[in-house]
Write a structure and sequence with these properties.
Elements lengths: L6 E5 L13 H15 L4 E5 L9 E3 L14 H14 L6 E4 L16 E5 L8 H6 L4 E4 L11 E4 L18 E5 L8 H11 L3 E4 L5 H8 L8 E3 L5 H9 L1 E6 L9 H8 L4 E4 L4 H4 L6 E4 L2 H8 L7 H11 L2 H20 L1
Parallel strand pairs: 1-2, 1-4, 2-3, 4-5, 5-6, 6-7, 8-9, 8-11, 9-10, 11-12, 12-13
Helix pairs in contact: 1-11, 4-9, 7-10
């Protein structure tokens, strides 16, 4: 049987619309999987997301808007309502591809449909109790570095991005750029230090995830001239932002899980300066598409070497590893293995 005739359910989170208007990494990936499967000829793909989501697959929603986009609903209630409704329909599918963290795993004893969970990261070590309790399920990681040694992964499938939303530019801009969620994990304050020491203007974009962090370590440095904060950016605004970029500064303070920002930057031809933690070494080719560093001083030195990077090689690395087609091709192999095991 052609596996493309199988009935696939893609379970997206409901924090944001799928695909998100601006921020929403897991929703972005769930969207790209669904759209990629349809583009590759899968006949029966259903995306479970918010009701206002946009997809070429079949859309089923139980929550009107993402709980981060309105304040009248309790996030946990929306989450449980959405997931439980999906599980009520589990028998309609040959495979559920879960992109909504650990909670859907708790339904496994009550459904017959196999579930593949893409682990987008561990928000806390305590959630491993649930993963360990369901080791007979199927897991993929989004990077080799972001794996727990106690879990039986089927594969690593790197996230894929939509190249149609990004413009490759051979000519660099003249500013440093830092974008993504604004909190300690992503090292926004370190990007500010680099810009000041390197004598370069910095543009900061993204949602403020930790208001106290922003108020204490970021806001005092914003002057709307050499250091600007422009808030969240949608795909069109992000593309315009990357046009101004000489380099993207990505000095994460914890191990990166994958880093969509890095793939997006390279797709636009923008080299990266990233902390050598977690997946950064897998996504960036050191000294070819950017520089891996260990501290602010090394990052400042790397700014002076950005001109040595061939911007075409940045795009080439994405085309070879981090497109939607690359990702979906990887998942097709995983699906095939799951169906093989289920037949046994």
């Amino acid at each position: 049987m052609d596996i493309k005739n199988k009935r696939i359910a893609i379970l997206a989170p409901v924090a944001w619309r799928t695909p998100p208007r601006a921020y929403g990494a897991w929703e972005t990936v769930a969207s790209n999987i669904a759209e990629g499967l349809v583009a590759r000829g899968w006949k029966d793909v259903t995306l479970f997301a918010t009701k206002e989501s946009i997809t070429k697959a079949k859309l089923v929603g139980f929550v009107e808007r993402g709980y981060e986009e309105e304040d009248k609903h309790i996030p946990l209630v929306s989450t449980c309502f959405h997931i439980s409704k999906v599980m009520e329909r589990a028998d309609e599918f040959d495979l559920i591809h879960n992109n909504f963290d650990y909670l859907p795993l708790t339904y496994l004893p009550f459904i017959k449909t196999p579930m593949l969970t893409t682990i987008h990261g561990f928000s806390d070590q305590d959630i491993l109790r649930i993963y360990y309790d369901h080791k007979d399920s199927y897991y993929t990681s989004i990077s080799d570095s972001d794996r727990d040694p106690g879990l039986p992964y089927l594969a690593t499938v790197y996230n894929g991005i939509d190249l149609s939303n990004l413009t490759f530019r051979q000519t660099p801009g003249d500013k440093l750029v830092h974008y993504g969620r604004i909190d300690m994990d992503k090292g926004t304050h370190l990007a500010i230090d680099v810009a000041k020491k390197a004598g370069k203007d910095l543009i900061i974009a993204g949602i403020i995830q930790d208001q106290k962090y922003f108020d204490d370590l970021v806001k005092p440095h914003i002057n709307d001239t050499s250091i600007k904060f422009i808030g969240p950016v949608n795909p069109v605004q992000r593309d315009a932002l990357l046009k101004e970029a000489y380099a993207v500064i990505h000095l994460n303070t914890i191990p990166e899980r994958f880093g969509l920002v890095m793939a997006e930057s390279m797709a636009a031809g923008v080299p990266l300066i990233a902390m050598d933690l977690g997946s950064c070494r897998e996504v960036i080719e050191d000294k070819v598409t950017g520089f891996l560093v260990n501290n602010v001083d090394e990052a400042v030195a790397a700014v002076g070497k950005i001109d040595s990077i061939d911007r075409k090689k940045c795009l080439q690395r994405v085309e070879e590893n981090f497109t939607i087609d690359c990702m979906v091709s990887g998942y097709e192999k995983v699906y095939e293995e799951i169906f093989r095991r289920e037949r046994k």
